[in-house]
Amino acid sequence: MTDGVWVIGGGVIGSLFAAHLSRVAEVTLLCRRSEHAAAVADNGIRVSGRADFVGRPQASTDPAGLADAGLAIVATKANDVEAAAAQLEGRLGDGSVMTVQNGLGAEEVVRGHGPWPLLSAVTFMSGTKLADDHIEYVLDTPTWLAPYEDAPLDLADRTASLIVESGLKAEAMPDLEPARWSKLIFNATVNSVAALTGLPHDHHFAELDRPTDLGHLVRGLMDEGTRIASAAGISLREDPWEMNVLATQRGSRHYPSMLEDVEARRPTEVDFITGALVREAERRGVEAPLMTAVYRLVKGREASYL
Amino acid sequence: MRVAIVGCGAVGSLFAANLAQLDDVEVWAFDLDQEHVAAINERGLRLSGAGEVVGKVHATTVAAELPPSDFGIVATKCMHTAAAIEASAPAFAGGAVCSVQNGVGNEEIIAEYVEHVIRGTTFPAGRILEPAHVQWDVKGDTTIGPFEPSPTPIPDVERLADACTRGGMPTQAVTDARGPQWRKLIFNAATNPIGALTGLTHGRVCEDPGLRRLVSQLVDEGKAVAAAQGIELDADPEELIDHAARPDVAYDHKASMLQDVEARRPTEIDYLNGGIARFGRDHGIPTPLNDAVTALIKGLEASWAQT
Known about the structure:
The complex is a heterodimer.
Chain A lengths: L4 E4 L3 H10 L5 E4 L3 H10 L1 E5 L3 E3 L2 E3 L10 E4 L6 H8 L7 E4 L6 H6 L6 E6 L2 E6 L2 E6 L3 E6 L4 H13 L4 E3 L4 H21 L16 H18 L8 H10 L7 H7 L10 H11 L4 H17 L1
Parallel strand pairs in A: 1-2, 1-6, 2-5, 3-10, 6-7, 7-8, 11-12
Antiparallel strand pairs in A: 3-4, 8-11, 9-10
Helix pairs in contact in A: 6-7, 6-8, 6-9, 6-11, 10-11
Chain B lengths: L1 E5 L3 H10 L6 E5 L3 H10 L1 E5 L3 E3 L2 E3 L10 E4 L6 H8 L7 E4 L6 H5 L5 E7 L2 E6 L2 E6 L3 E5 L7 H14 L3 E3 L4 H21 L3 H6 L1 H20 L8 H8 L11 H7 L10 H10 L5 H17 L3
């Protein structure tokens, strides 16, 4: 895997991939705004926090004219996968595409634009974008990846090795669904509750002392998610409630992206995260009143400012 | 007859100023807002809007200054009920105390301090414009009845209703006042937190099919808890909710809880959805969605302490 890598999407996750991978491969970051591309081309991407270096990827707003890459990592928000995949159409030769979106369904969208071998991934790393060319790397938790449809496991192994070589954590596995669903249930719950309450993911999310404590709602949402997963034939890799308790015990106060989106009055990813579970519940005939309620409330909150 | 208003905010002021129009009623008011109290004593309590009234009211910030009274009318926000009635209870040793507050659970608190309690539900609304001057936004009826575990004799309930009605606040005395109270409670609990959590006006909540369904689910839980107590609602909250959503009624209305949230004031959630959940637990009726919105609003309140 010495061929070039395109990273599509210059948010926190895309920037962390591009900066790290630029140390072991020819990397081009594809972003939407030309000022952003210019800043990265001129200054590189500075990573601080968990690591401290300046990555030197190329940067562009348009893949036309670029030499084909062996791998494209689609690291946009879920809402922008369609546009990213359209950019890739007819390109990459026999290269492959990896999706790392929150929620479900990004692979189907990409598949609609080309026959590339696909890798499904979820990432648990996180950070804060301080500037277009400066990312604070906060949580160095791993990215998990697996073949989608009939892509070979070997492709997932080689891609994971490349990511590890670049300084990030990654693990290849034959089936992503148990891990992906664990994260999906965790994310749908924590993001929706944070967006509605304004609370970062902190100790309130695990409190169970009084009947009105938030932990009961969090656990109720996660129980519904687990029932939906089970109806979909998925046995979870990790218990979402344990993930929640562990994360809140670390004492960190993580600001989930949906809370940041609501505070900045941007569209959220609720349709791809919480909405994905609600649709799955409807399809499988599973009752999910709490998940449905928080989904509708976040949609209503969006409607109040969009 | 002497009536003491406990908590002379907008609703308390409507009762105080209107009752003060009567020659046979002496009106006192206990409130902690010093400016408001001083202004009332200086120039009387004035209402404008739905009615133009100035009433002579004896106001005080010191509960111990309240003289022995025939009736108390408690009109504080729910979270202040206990402190307000604890301080003022001695004035009502020989009288009866009526709650005209939002939600459920206030009468239970009042009954810990006074012997005779009246359950009340009131619909008039207003807001304080300046000290001693209240905008009267909406006229409406009040229903009062004995609080069952600690009842006030019906003739006394009727005496208070008669005075309020004569003063300009139409009030009906009934033997079971739980129907109107739970109708108002269910209406408020199904709509207020949805407005507060989304930022949407009542009309916009109701025209979003997903949110309107959530409103109905909250109504259904409230109805089940009311039914388990043998309470017959005096009107269907669903119809009132749809009626209020009409452009000519309250489409653009921001729920009071949304106004509280925008101003970062503590909400009355514990006495609305939290009250339905509490009575539900007592009667073995699950209320998962009322529990959920209670937890979300309390989480929202907790977030203000952090920023």
